[in-house]
Amino acid sequence: MPFDGNAIGGLLLEIFGSDMTSAEASCATCGAVGPVAETTVYLRGPGTVVRCRRCTSVLMVVARVRGLNCVDLSGLAALEVEY
Amino acid sequence: MAGTAVRGRLSWQVATVAAVIEETDSVRTIALDLPDWPGHRAGQHLDIRLTAEDGYSAERSYSIASADGEPVNITVERLEDGEVSPYLTQELRPGDQMEVRGPIGNWFTWGPHDGGPLLLIAGGSGVVPLRAILRHRQRSRSSVPVRLLYSSRSLADVIYREELDQYGRSAEVNYTLTRSQPPDWGGFSGRVDDAMLARVAWPASQRPLAFICGPTPFVEAVAELLVARHYLSGRVKTERFGGA
């Protein structure tokens, strides 16, 4: 069973340098907007895959390659963090 | 933005096991000594990294069981097919060390300023971050009304039972036992359903704040029931543990 965006709080903190679970993610496919915490997250694959809870499109993929996190955000229309 | 490579910045620190407390046959609380811990908020979690002698490492997330300002405790349930939890619940001893990073996650957190009334719904070990919220509410002398609905397989599987039963009237604690109930059982039986929520959940007109934590199918089912009861989706916070 998939997890949710809470489960990648540590990974995203490592990448973005601030907490992203409360950040608002906008799906580039269906336009759904909601906190990263509410996305659907698959941890067991070769990378970490984050999907839209409404339309299941891929929002983000993170793959760790030779100590670097390779981040694909092309499924996101926006990612808004409150300061 | 695709394909950007970013170097890691969140640092791991070494935690020493201060104590272990057996909660049930398969669940244990681990008190951690973390000299550089910046403090946490009720509901947050941390990541643990264990590295074998051959260099193989595994990372897992665990909810923090203690309230703001308390020493860091985590509560771990042993998963029979698990890679990390059998070690943490069976092998780990006081004095052992592991790598920890955190605290993590500002979404699934509660403080007195967030208000209520609070509805906490737990499936199995999903009670862990909700216990931190209950403790924080009590330690901060918050008067926000709270109800907990805790779904467990049997009474013997209920984590923190003694502590939860101590709340008396200051927090309404309800159990539902899904697989077996003692002969004189006065609580709920079976899975959380709408009839149960009709008795336990605050009316939507009070603008309740709900926290649901547990296995993914449990959380999705309960969240749907609350939204059907006209709870505002922004005030239904969820955390999914995956699982069966």
Set out the fold topology:
The complex is a heterodimer of chains A (83) and B (244).
Chain A: E1 3-4, H1 9-16, E2 24-27, E3 33-35, E4 40-42, E5 48-51, E6 58-65, E7 68-72, E8 76-80
Chain B: E1 4-6, E2 13-24, E3 27-33, E4 45-51, E5 57-63, E6 73-77, H1 85-91, E7 97-104, E8 118-123, H2 127-139, E9 146-152, H3 161-165, E10 172-177, E11 188-189, H4 194-200, E12 209-214, H5 216-228, E13 236-240
Parallel strand pairs in B: 8-9, 8-12, 9-10, 10-11, 12-13
Antiparallel strand pairs in B: 2-3, 2-7, 3-6, 4-5, 4-7
Roughly how many Å apart are the termini of chain B? 35 Å
Alpha carbon gyration radius of chain B: 18 Å
Strand order, sheet with most strands of chain A:
1-4-5-6-7
User: Structural class, judged by helices and strands of chain A?
Assistant: mainly beta
**Helical residues, percent of chain B:** 10-25%
In short:
The complex is a heterodimer of chains A (83) and B (244). Chain A has 83 residues and is mainly β.
Please, could you describe this protein's structure?
- The complex is a heterodimer of chains A (83) and B (244).
- Chain A has 83 residues and is mainly beta.
- Chain A has one helix spanning 9-16; strands spanning 3-4, 24-27, 33-35, 40-42, 48-51, 58-65, 68-72, 76-80.
- In chain A, strand 6 (58-65) and strand 7 (68-72) form a beta hairpin.
- With 244 residues, chain B is of the alpha/beta class.
- Chain B folds into 2 domains: 2-103, Translation factors (Elongation Factor Tu (Ef-tu), domain 3), CATH 2.40.30.10; 112-240, Rossmann fold (3-Layer(aba) Sandwich).
- Chain B is built from 5 helices and 13 strands.
- Chain B has helices spanning 85-91, 127-139, 161-165, 194-200, 216-228, and strands spanning 4-6, 13-24, 27-33, 45-51, 57-63, 73-77, 97-104, 118-123, 146-152, 172-177, 188-189, 209-214, 236-240.
- The longest helix of chain B is centred in the middle third of the chain and has 13 residues, at 127-139.
- Chain B starts with a strand and ends with a strand.
- Classes of the chains: A mainly beta (83), B alpha/beta (244).
- Chain A binds chain B through residues 1-7, 9-10, 13-15, 17, 19, 21-22, 35-38, 43, 65, 67-74, 76, and chain B through 1-10, 45-47, 59, 61, 101-102, 104-108, 215-217, 237-244.
- Strand 7 (68-72) of chain A pairs antiparallel with strand 1 of chain B, so a sheet runs across the interface.
